[in-house]
Amino acid sequence: MEALAEANHGHAVAYGDDPWTERAVADFDELFDCDTVTLMVWNGTGANVLGLASALSPGGAVVCTDCAHINVDETGAPERILGSKLIDLPATSGKLSARQLESLRHQIGVVHHVQPRILSITQSTEWGTLYSVAELEALCHAAHDLGLYVHLDGARIANATAALGGTREALRSFTTDIGVDVISFGGTKNGMMYGEAVVFLDRSLASHAGYVRKQITQLPSKVRYISAQFSALLHDDLWIRNASHANQMASLLHSRLVGRSDLSVSAPEVNSTFPTFSPAIEQHQIEALREWSYFYDWDTAGRQVRWMTAWDTQSDDVERLVTGLDHFLS
Ligand SMILES: Cc1ncc(COP(=O)(O)O)c(C=O)c1O
Fold first, then answer.
1. All domains of the chain, ordered by start, with CATH?
2. 127: enclosing H helix or E strand
């Protein structure tokens, strides 16, 4: 908020030609230790569409998991805007394996099939899991071997970085070091008011990205307000500290849930837990709990829900939730 207020003095050139954006792009270059092309956008769906659209060629398709945000939680925006097929492969705990990509080889170069052009992976995943560096390296290698670019949906890239060591080197170990080509870099979920960045590590993919951003309605006239927030977040690695805190709060939440008879939950790898209510709990009790403190269903049939922790979750919030559980599930 201070960064927003600081950027709110006087006038600046619009559409990103301003000192705040110049600084933020330099901050991203420093973060990834390379010369990126970085474009600010309004939201995560837009970031994904921009990253994918820039790397796709006619006849191309995007390979992802069946549970990828681009596949199930963006209301079909990628298909509608890209006009391309998403090839969704079955995920295990939110993840793909390098071996699964082999199943695509037969369609490459065959005129009757869409041409897999991009592998889009999410780190940390929609299931709150983490790819290890070795797993991602193998995936990138397999993708590049098939002639695919690699897009990383990093709506929660900060939580992954925090969990994999909490340093800039950790970030680079699963991005620049292994050949990821373009990243949707999350801001909103990690403390920003709004805004995400598309970071092209392969600059050649960005040759038309500026035009595409405008076409897909993701070019804010006052880009500086997103840029200023990113500089504040990247400064002194606040982004990693925020995400580490969120991850720690998920561990605390898990420790307070484990052993309860009314639900079961496995240990979080980042900042999400996916409790499943026991059959003894009646639906009206779950609804009363939800009425008291809103949460999303994850798998309605399986009575599984998703409880996230955030950069600003406090241990008191966790205790309050436990009190609510005791009250509504008893
Ligand atoms: C993995 C992932 N990608 C992208 C997004 C983008 O979200 P939005 O378009 O709501 O900013 C989200 C939001 O939940 C997400 O979880």
1. 2-239 (3.40.640.10), 245-328 (3.90.1150.10)
2. none
Tokens of 63: 């390979």
Give the Cβ contact number of residue 156 at 10 Å: 28
- How would you write the pLDDT of the chain (330 residues) with one tens digit per residue? 999 999 999 999 999 999 999 999 999 999 999 999 999 999 999 999 999 999 999 999 999 999 999 999 999 999 999 999 999 999 999 999 999 999 999 999 999 999 999 999 999 999 999 999 999 999 999 999 999 999 999 999 999 999 999 999 999 999 999 999 999 999 999 999 999 999 999 999 999 999 999 999 999 999 999 999 999 999 999 999 999 999 999 999 999 999 999 999 999 999 999 999 999 999 999 999 999 999 999 999 999 999 999 999 999 999 999 999 999 998
- Residue whose structure tokens are 């191309």: 60
CB of 231 closer than 6 A to ligand 1? no
The answer to whether the beta carbons of residues 245 and 252 sit under 8 Å apart is: no
Residue indicated by tokens 């897009």 = 151
| Ligand 1 centroid – CA 70 distance (Å) | 8
State whether the beta carbon of 43 lies less than 6 angstroms from ligand 1.
yes
68 CB within 6 A, ligand 1: no
Ligand 1 centroid from CA 10, angstroms: 33
Rounded to two decimals, the pTM is 0.97
- Whether 125 lines ligand 1, by a CB cut-off of 6 Å, is no
Give yes or no for residue 45 CB within 6 A of ligand 1: yes
Question: How far, CA to CA in Å, does 302 sit from each of 30, 104, 296, 298?
Answer: 45, 32, 13, 8
